[in-house]
Design brief:
The complex is a heterodimer of chains A (391) and B (178). Chain A is mostly beta strands and 391 residues long. In chain A, helix 1 runs parallel beside helix 2. Chain B is mostly beta strands and 178 residues long. Chain B folds into 2 domains: 30 residues, no CATH class; 140 residues, Jelly Rolls (Sandwich), CATH 2.60.120.40. In chain B, strands 3, 5, 6, 8, 9 and 11 form a 6-stranded antiparallel β-sheet that branches. Chain B has a 5-stranded antiparallel β-sheet with strand order 4-1-13-7-10, with no helix packed on it. The chains are: A mainly beta (391), B mainly beta (178). Chains A and B meet through helix 1, strand 9, strand 13, helix 2 and strand 21 of A and helix 1, strand 7, strand 8, strand 9 and strand 10 of B.
């Protein structure tokens, strides 16, 4: 881990003019600051590997992390409130969590969630993967969750007014159950969070080309500096970031007998975050503003009936890089569904996309009685996340 | 997809007269690395028979691997069907796996230099699901030039993976932080 022993700062931005010198302090405040922030952004990865934790029935419960694998700006305290990661540097963060339930009785559901406490206030839980509890001896349901967070208020660990995030488990077996860990078998609760973007910046910039610097008799122009230093850093600090959510809870997803080439579009109707204004709430479509490799996460939340069997989440992509340019849904595969209660299937990919390519969130489900399922809203809601991560 | 030296914080000395190679090292290489990152993406194009136990996933289509970390065969540095990290850092692995029929459980994970980290475990459709499968994401710290990732897939019963557009097994690995 590269630990610069200091919380980073946002790079300074300069507009360069012809016939002026290039002051060293300007380069330090822009290029050096960008290198520190972007090569080793605030990031945390923690595990629960030493002590199991009892999780009450039907209650979102923050999961303690007793092992730190990565904590670049010391946002986690293993002694006090060991489930929490405290904001040390404002920005958008990507949080992910997975946790197994030490129960194989087959009753109820297991769900992972991301909790967020703005300014050390009450925690809001955002449900993620939600699957049936395990029913095979020695195999424990392990759901995953992923969420984009807008963390605006950094400060000391535990401080009043300081944001924190955490991973949480929900299970409804009918009784309290322990978390599951078996370090030797590679299974243990894990929570990770990474800074991905500044809260504000300039949009519409090009992906940095990073050309070779001029060799005499050519010389460095102000245009060269503004494009390849100022704009390049501005883009990297504030790339396209988007999360959209479905809040209505009335649409349905028909039963299918095989995964369709193009799945049922989840009518995401609320752009929670959309820094480059790339998502349409009317067409439920996200359009890549620039080319690059994007982290894409989708979760399709369904409520079925007693005959529900299985479900899947997918990313419906129109891009010349996939399926010859013909729209297709990239599925994560089908998993069991919770008959008659909340079910959430997830998909996570890194996709190479061109500017103008589109992504929609898709769902599929099978019901033995061919019944439709409802796309639900609330704590377990469908959402789509897209983040530009590299050229 | 250009390769770059790992970014470090450039030191701009005062009172120094830089030449072009200085700017290359200080700025072009630094911002180039921060722009292009480290990414590996691969897919399966031939169906793989999965035993009813632990399996190492095999990929035939290497869509992106600028740092040449993938090896389908064992070498002195890495196991077969693995990706060797070029730089020390935190990496995120995303995995999808579709297979043909139902199984009572399925487990997706990564082997980090032989040590398993499970991403997700879930039941697969017990009653004639459309196309079963599993997937997930794992974040792992890796030592450059020493640690490698293999994708692990364990299921309750023997299956074969499905190779249709959109459902073929895939893996992506990307550097999150140095």
């Amino acid at each position: 881990m590269t630990n610069y022993a200091a919380v980073p700062v946002l790079p300074a931005s300069y507009t360069w003019n012809d016939l002026e010198v290039i002051p060293v302090p300007y380069l330090r405040a822009s290029v050096s600051a960008a290198a520190q922030l972007l090569s080793a952004p605030p990031a945390f990865l923690g595990y629960q590997q030493a002590t199991t934790q009892s999780v009450p029935d039907a209650t979102f419960t923050g999961i303690s992390l007793d092992t730190e694998a990565w904590d670049s700006v010391n946002g986690h305290d293993g002694a006090a409130n060991p489930s929490r990661y405290w904001n040390q540097f404002a920005g958008y963060y990507l949080a992910q969590f997975s946790c197994g339930v030490d129960y194989t009785g087959g009753a109820g559901i297991a769900a992972a969630a991301i909790g967020f406490s703005p300014e050390n206030g009450s925690v809001t839980w955002y449900g993620g993967g939600c699957i049936p509890n395990g029913a095979s001896s020695g195999h424990y349901a392990t759901p995953q969750a992923c969420k984009l967070l807008e963390m605006t208020s950094p400060g000391p660990l535990g401080g009043a007014g300081v944001d924190y995030a955490l991973g949480g488990l929900y299970q409804s077996s009918g009784a309290a159950q322990d978390t599951w860990y078996d370090v030797a078998a590679g299974q243990y609760p894990q929570f990770g969070i990474t800074w991905v973007s500044a809260l504000a910046g300039t949009t519409g910039l090009a992906v940095p080309a990073n050309p070779a610097w001029p060799v005499p008799p050519d010389y460095i122009t102000s245009s060269f500096m503004n494009t390849n230093v100022t704009d390049a850093i501005a883009f990297l600090v504030y790339p396209p970031v988007m999360e959209a959510t479905y809040t209505t809870g009335t649409a349905t997803c028909a039963s299918v007998t095989s995964l369709p080439t193009v799945g049922t579009t989840v009518p995401l109707n609320s752009a929670t975050y959309d820094t480059w204004s790339a998502f349409s709430t009317s067409t439920h479509t996200w359009t890549a503003p620039v080319a690059g490799v994007y982290f894409c996460y989708g979760q399709s939340a369904l409520t079925g009936v007693s005959t529900s069997e299985s479900m899947a989440a997918g990313l419906t992509v129109t891009s010349s890089n996939y399926n010859g340019g013909t729209q297709t849904t990239l599925w994560q595969g089908v998993t069991d569904m919770n008959p008659g209660s909340s079910s959430v299937a997830t998909v996570a990919r890194r996709l190479r996309l061109n500017a103008g390519d589109t992504v929609l969130l898709a769902a599929a489900q099978r019901d033995s009685g061919s019944n439709a399922a409802t796309l639900q809203a609330g704590e377990f809601a469908s959402r789509l996340i897209t983040l530009w991560r590299s050229a | 997809m250009t390769t770059w030296p790992a970014a470090s914080i450039p030191v701009f000395p005062a009172g120094y007269k830089p030449v072009q190679s200085d700017f290359t090292a200080w700025i072009q290489n630094t911002l180039g690395f921060l722009t292009d990152g480290v990414v590996f993406r691969a897919r399966q194009t031939s169906s793989q028979a999965l035993s009813g136990a632990s399996n190492i996933m095999q990929y035939q289509a290497i869509d992106e691997d600028p740092y040449s970390g993938w090896s389908a065969t064992a070498t002195a540095d890495q196991a077969a069907h693995s990706w060797l990290a070029p730089y020390t850092g935190l990496y995120q692995v995303t995995v999808t796996t579709g297979y043909a029929a139902s199984a009572n459980w399925a487990e997706t994970g990564v082997l980090l230099t032989g040590v398993l980290t499970v991403a997700a475990q879930q039941g697969s459709p017990g009653i004639s699901g459309p196309t079963a499968g599993a997937g997930g994401m794992v974040t792992v710290p890796m030592t450059g030039g020493a640690d490698y990732v293999q994708v692990s897939m364990s299921i309750a019963t023997a299956e074969s993976t499905v190779i249709t557009a959109g459902s073929e097994p895939s893996v992506e690995i990307a550097l999150v932080s140095l």
